Amino acid sequence: MLKIITQHIGKSTRKRKAVLAVLFVVMFGLGGVLGFYIRSQTVNPRATIPGPLSRLLSFFVTKGEGVEEDLLYHDTNLTSYIINGSAKTKVSVVGKVTEVVKDPDGDYHVIISDSFGLPLVTEGIPEIPMELPKLGDTVRLWGLTRFDIPHNWWEIHPIIGWEKQ
Question: Which residue ranges run through the membrane (predicted)?
């Protein structure tokens, strides 16, 4: 492609440098836009993402201060999570299993409800094998928060683990 462009603009080095500079800026600009789009689709939209200054300043801070925070699954009220989501990436909720459905792709949906009957879809994946809870069980399950844009609801996907209460 570069050869075609240089043939088209001729042998002038000034033009060639200008065209290459413009191509460089356009390619990196598109890469940045694509990166932001991918990040917006994969990162918890309520999570706090540090800005450039915080990242720079955190370079000078002793590492390991946030290890405990990274390991915790935060106990979260199920009703509050269903309605408002969570700023935390890892949560733990307690609810009653109202439906267990295995998908053809190997995933399984465990739908739990709060005391008002509001449902929360949680999804297990084949890469984290575990026994499924039974219908009617009250369980504590923990996993990663995610906002499912096509369905417009919060869910826990994947389920990392669960226990009967």
Answer: 20-38
